[in-house]
């Protein structure tokens, strides 16, 4: 994955996230794309509360076929079970090997724990991709607690 590709795919995930508004509120408008062999094969965004988060939406579309798939997600996957299952755990269970993350989630129940869940399971994680742009576009929607 070249630096240019990383920016390209995270930009696609960011644009996908914009489609979540306003129905996703109060959850943040996260976007996610799945990439295989340099092509986006699935994309998703935060659905209304109680429905799939962006990552879960994409994983559902992949239907278990994750060989060679990398995920690009604009926000750290959630590590805790809230209204929906934990995305970080779902990513691990599905066998995704590589996750590219935009922003670390400032939520008091996440704050790096989602990244830790992935890394402890052996998933390769790279954070901070498109960070400045995402801070502008996604940052205002992030919540620090409930
Ligand atoms: Zn989640």
Automatic annotation (TrEMBL):
This is Riboflavin-specific deaminase. The keyword Zinc applies. Gene3D superfamilies: Cytidine Deaminase, domain 2 (3.40.140.10). It holds the Pfam family dCMP_cyt_deam_1. GO terms for molecular function: diaminohydroxyphosphoribosylaminopyrimidine deaminase activity; zinc ion binding. Signal peptide: none annotated. Keywords: Metal-binding, Zinc. The keyword Disulfide bond does not apply.
């Amino acid at each position: 994955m070249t630096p240019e590709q990383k920016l390209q795919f995270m930009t696609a995930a960011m644009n996908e996230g914009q489609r979540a508004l306003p129905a996703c509120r109060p959850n943040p408008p996260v976007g996610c794309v799945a990439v295989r062999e340099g092509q986006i094969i699935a994309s998703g965004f935060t659905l209304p509360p109680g429905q799939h988060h962006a990552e879960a939406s994409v994983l559902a579309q992949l239907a278990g076929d994750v060989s060679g798939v990398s995920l690009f997600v604009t926000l750290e996957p959630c590590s805790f079970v809230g209204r929906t299952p934990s995305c970080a755990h779902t990513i691990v269970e599905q066998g995704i090997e590589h996750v590219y993350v935009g922003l670390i989630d400032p939520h008091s129940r996440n704050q790096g724990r989602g990244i830790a869940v992935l890394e402890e399971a052996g998933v390769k994680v790279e954070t901070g991709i498109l960070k400045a742009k995402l801070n502008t576009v996604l940052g205002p929607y992030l919540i620090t607690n409930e």
